[in-house]
Design a protein that fits this description.
- The structure is a single chain.
- This protein has 396 residues and is of the alpha/beta class.
- The chain folds into two domains: 276 residues, TIM Barrel (Alpha-Beta Barrel); 82 residues, Golgi alpha-mannosidase II (Immunoglobulin-like), CATH 2.60.40.
- It has twelve helices and 18 strands.
- The strands form four sheets. It has an eight-stranded parallel β-sheet.
- Strand 3 and strand 4 form a beta hairpin.
- It is globular, with a radius of gyration of 22 Å.
- The relative contact order is 0.11.
- The N terminus is likely disordered.
- Bound molecules: beta-D-galactopyranose (GAL).
Length: 396
């Protein structure tokens, strides 16, 4: 081969790889699934709690249903020593041993820190020590990092002098820095950005290496908050896809603050949104209803569909909303959501979702085929509830 040609190919390869190095990795072809300490245990966590939840993840069937990440959220941090080494608090005597235990169960291990000097709870975070922390996380065996903005907001304010564009650029650089530091450890680590949707993160999250990014503030275990977060995702579908997902936050299913119909709405909406499915309840104490919701294989299959398309609102009549998600092979998932506080008749008009009959339909909560639909399907949807269908063309 001509030497100049060879050098030019080499340069092209080098620059192409260098300019792509801030791009998202390929560790999350479908939305990550797992469990997090945060929604149920908050700061009341320890090595023993995490081991018991990992055990329950296996014995309950959650792991086999696809939930594999065991994510320790805020509350594990201890102090940073004179050499800059970050130590867990005394509830976590040996993080590497804990990660090994989680791995021995066929699960993956997630951890939490942030770009500021402090986490939201005032514990030590990674500001100024990003590279050192990334190396240590990799050495412990971390597979997933949640990076929470928290006190970095103060730094953005100070360094930008209040200029919004500057402040956004500082935030983006901080997220990109940790991405690069994780990358240079050589360990595959899913990168979860948590900055509550600031600066329309969905428009730039992939450019700084995010595999997922929170789109809103925190969820809480009540229908009002869950539904306002979930339905507010309308319009964000163009920004998600394989390895880069919008994250409307950890699931509350099983925490006790919502009815079974409301939790079904929560799970259905998250699946249609192709949201990360990270359970946030006590896996060692699940009612049969909670299990049937979190481990509904047909709903999980909608979330995890390999086409990787986020669904969106197709149409709405006030609080009666119809959402759709295109699936691989030409099927479509449909959610008929009744946001009112009374059972209400709702109609699916195939033409309004760009389909026409005849199609076969399956109800993903009753697990029954409901026959062939021609143009419309009318059904009573419970208050705050959902009817979730999967439609297939008869002659695709
Ligand atoms: C919040 C974050 C929550 C949780 C919490 C821990 O900022 O949004 O998901 O991580 O911090 O303190």
């Amino acid at each position: 081969m001509n030497k100049r040609f060879f050098v030019s190919i080499l340069c092209t390869f080098f620059f192409a790889t260098a300019s792509m190095s801030a791009q998202t990795n390929s560790l999350a072809p479908t939305p990550p699934m797992g469990w997090s300490t945060w929604n149920h245990f908050h700061h009341d966590i320890s090595d023993a709690v995490v081991r018991a939840q990992a055990d329950a993840m296996v014995s309950s069937g959650m792991r086999d249903a696809g939930y594999v990440y065991v994510n320790i959220d805020g509350g594990w941090e201890g102090y940073r020593d004179a050499a800059g080494v970050l130590h867990p608090n005394s509830n976590f005597p040996d993080m590497k041993a804990l990660a090994d235990y989680v791995h021995s169960k066929g699960l993956k291990f997630g951890l939490y820190t942030g770009p500021g000097p402090k986490t939201c709870a005032g514990a030590v975070a990674s500001y100024g020590y990003e590279e050192q922390d990334a190396k240590m996380f990799a050495a412990w065996g971390v597979d997933y990092l949640k990076y929470d903005l928290c006190s970095f907001r103060e730094i953005m304010k100070q360094e930008s002098g209040g200029n919004v564009q500057k402040s956004d650029a500082i935030m983006q650089a901080a997220y990109e820095k940790m991405h690069r530091d994780l990358l240079s450890t050589g360990r595959p680590i899913v990168y979860g950005m948590c900055q509550y949707g600031w600066g329309k993160v969905w428009t730039w999250g992939t450019q700084v290496g995010g595999n997922l990014w929170r789109t809103t503030g925190d969820i809480s275990d009540n229908y009002g908050r869950m539904s306002s977060i979930g339905f507010r995702e309308a319009g964000l579908s163009p920004y998600a896809g394989p390895n880069h997902w919008n994250d409307p936050d950890i699931l509350e299913v099983g925490n006790g603050g919502m009815t079974t119909d409301e939790y079904r709405t929560h799970m259905s909406l998250w699946a249609i949104l192709a949201a990360p499915l990270v359970a946030g309840n006590d896996l060692a104490n699940m009612t049969p209803e909670t299990k049937s919701i979190l481990m509904n294989k047909e709903v999980i299959a909608v979330d995890q569909d390999p086409l990787g398309k986020q669904g969106d609102r197709a149409y709405a009549a006030g609080p009666l909303e119809v959402w759709t998600k295109p699936l691989q092979g030409g099927d479509v998932a449909v959610g008929l959501f009744n946001r009112t506080s009374a059972p209400t008749r709702m109609s699916l008009h195939l033409a309004d979702i760009g389909w026409h009959g005849p199609v076969t339909a399956r109800d993903l909560w009753s697990h029954r085929g409901i026959g062939v639909l021609d143009e419309n399907y009318t059904v009573v949807v419970p208050q705050h509830g959902v009817v979730m269908l999967r439609l297939s063309k008869i002659n695709p």
